[in-house]
Design goal:
- The first copy, chain A, is of the alpha/beta class and 379 residues long.
- Chain A has two domains: 2-24 and 269-371, D-serine dehydratase-like domain (Lyase, Ornithine Decarboxylase, Chain A, domain 1, Beta Barrel), CATH 2.40.37.20; 27-249, Alpha-Beta Barrel (TIM Barrel).
- Helices cover 29% and strands 20% of the residues of chain A.
- In chain A, strands 1, 10, 11, 12, 13, 14, 15, 16 and 17 form a nine-stranded mixed beta sheet that branches.
- At the A-B interface, helix 4, helix 5 and strand 10 of A face helix 4, helix 5 and strand 10 of B.
């Protein structure tokens, strides 16, 4: 039913002829972003394991792997299932997998997939995973998740990491592969120099934990973490192996605002915005304003407001679930009823999670349609 | 693919055994809400035309019609398509349908559906709809959408309403049926008495417009508007025909806070919350807090935060796309890793739009699974 409902137009169709709201991906910009991270990592002798929670699309995962990624990260078991079913290997699930039913789903993936890994942050979970692996006669690789101070998941740095690693090492069915230290709260610190300083300080706790593990003779093959905001900082951390950047392929208004390398006042332009929402002006109830057909069901609402692409002086505000309002403060061009306009999205990940397809655009033409098969896979 | 990914458990399954996050619908509460609006309207000799943008589920639309609804409202053309395909008739599209492509979709529905109506708020759109209807040899019924002061859609009250109605009356292929006056900004005014006072004042503009139309000999068969916050106020407006309540079947934290009839300090309890999200505690990085597996992709973020159901003293905060944090301030019970908890949702409409299914629960057992076929239908 759902596929039928999306009027999929392909071939020599202009993006301006698409029905709206529609999620667009500028292919040239997207490909440049892919290449930029890949080349940066190669030059700096580090690796990347991109997070697919951003795009939820196996086609994009495969492009990331072709560009040199070690494998991928998935936030949830159900996302990993979608990726594994598409033939993708070397998947790291970056959240603890708790409850017997979810562990059963995890083992279902493990049966058919090589290179599956999951993070753990408590002893009971180690026991549960070990028992499930033994029952299914499988070997499951795990990383110890370390709390970087964000208090979301992870064991405390230092001795608790060593204790949990030892526990894993003596558990049948499990393999200890290393550590995850994802400092989410460092990704969007404003200004590169401040971000670098605080991130390097924060990562010190992971370095110390790794040192303690090695002192005990425990091999730490993987030291993964970081994201789009720290991809060019993390590789300077001793022993760090791979960065989990996700947003770099799309960018969004939130990331643009974190400040560039040369100046915190400038936009963060290491990567360029490739993801937009196409919307139509549908009503003009008062002069000086116009209403578009994209509201809270077309854009994530947790970040700054969406921003018009290529048009200045016309801020957007949410006007309910189905509408947005544009105010002509100092407009660089006119917008009339029936006109289509493009918006840079506020926060890319939850915006993508509202759509079923990317319309892939090159030179304003719809080149392809990619299914967001992992949409809604929050389990 | 998507259906396969949702591990659908049915039969004698307890809701506590469902994988999470999952959207639950308490059937007893839902049915009581259905009945309450229906009985209220019958007693007060008024009608209701519920808005399906809230639930996006044909099964629920049919239950609303069985409970006495005149028909349904849909916000978008693509939502109306889903409903029409399920055999539902008498659909009012409550937003202007602009652009040739969208009008073609609209006429596609009209071909196979009786009682389709759409609102209009500008002359150019009247011309476009008239031409499309003539081309397809169809008759399309329209309502004039009046701007209630929210400046989102609609013509100004008074003479502009009469001018547009006259334009419709002389346009081949179109039928003028009446007016829509949806005062969205009145729905959540805190305290019943204040809400009633301001809503009645606001509705006066619609009453005056209707009077002007009738003075010109134009019959106004439909005067639709209002919602869950004003369902028990609007029928006192002279000439008002039907209320567009949507949220009444589910309720949410936002609506609960608008204040009851007896006291603005009390919760709004005309309808009771039937919609919840089931989530699992997956990590406890620090004492006094615990992390659950439901974040910005499991709850809409535009309203107040979600609230635990049946447990007090433990506020929720968003911790990124995949996680929420619970703080044990004054907990009425313990929550441990692996425990499942239920949340009242912040804002029901955009929360539903994140999920593909309702798990229908009665006496804690999964009685049925209803597909949210209109999810993502924002076009």
């Amino acid at each position: 039913m759902e596929k039928k409902r999306h009027h999929i137009l392909k071939g020599n169709i202009s993006k301006w002829d698409l029905d709206t709201p529609a999620l667009l991906l500028d292919m040239d910009v997207f490909e440049a972003n892919l290449k930029k991270l890949s080349e940066y990592c190669r030059k700096n002798d580090t690796a990347f394991r991109p997070h697919i929670k951003t795009h939820k699309c196996p086609i994009i995962s495969k492009k990331q792997i072709s560009s040199g990624a070690l494998g991928i990260c998935a936030a949830k078991t159900s996302e990993a299932e979608v990726m594994a079913d598409s033939g993708i290997r070397n998947i790291l699930i970056t959240s603890p997998v708790i409850t017997p039913y979810k562990i059963k789903r995890l083992m279902g993936i493990r049966k058919n997939t090589s290179g599956l890994m999951v993070v753990v942050d408590n002893v009971k979970n180690v026991t549960d995973l070990s028992e499930a692996a033994k029952r299914d006669n499988l070997k499951l690789d795990v990383l110890v998740d370390i709390n970087p101070g964000e208090d979301r998941t992870g064991v405390k740095p230092g001795k608790p990491v060593v204790d949990l690693a030892k526990n894993i090492l003596k558990s049948d069915g499990l393999g200890f592969r290393g550590i995850q230290f994802y400092a989410g709260h460092m990704q969007q610190i404003h200004g590169f120099h401040e971000r670098r300083k605080r991130n390097m300080e924060c990562m010190e706790k992971a370095v110390e934990s790794k040192r303690l593990l090695e002192k005990e003779g425990i091999h730490v093959g993987i030291f993964t973490g970081g994201g789009t905001g720290t991809y060019n900082i993390d590789h300077n951390v001793p022993g760090f192996t791979d960065v989990q950047s996700g947003s770099y392929i799309f960018m969004d208004v939130e990331y643009l605002a974190i400040g560039g390398k040369d100046s915190p006042e400038k936009l963060y332009e290491d990567f360029a915005p490739s993801l937009t929402v196409l919307s139509t002006a549908i009503s003009q109830p008062v002069k000086g304003k116009i209403t578009v057909d994209a509201g809270k069901k077309a854009f994530a609402t947790d970040g700054p407001n969406p921003v018009l692409k290529g048009i200045s002086g016309i801020p957007y505000e949410f006007m309910g679930d189905e509408y947005g309002g544009l105010t002509f403060e100092n407009p660089s061009r006119e917008i009339k009823i029936g006109d289509k306009v493009e918006f840079l999205v506020s926060h890319c990940d939850p915006t993508v999670n509202l759509y079923d397809h990317y319309h892939c655009i090159r030179n304003e033409i719809v080149e392809d349609i990619w299914e967001i098969s992992g949409r809604g896979m929050s389990q």
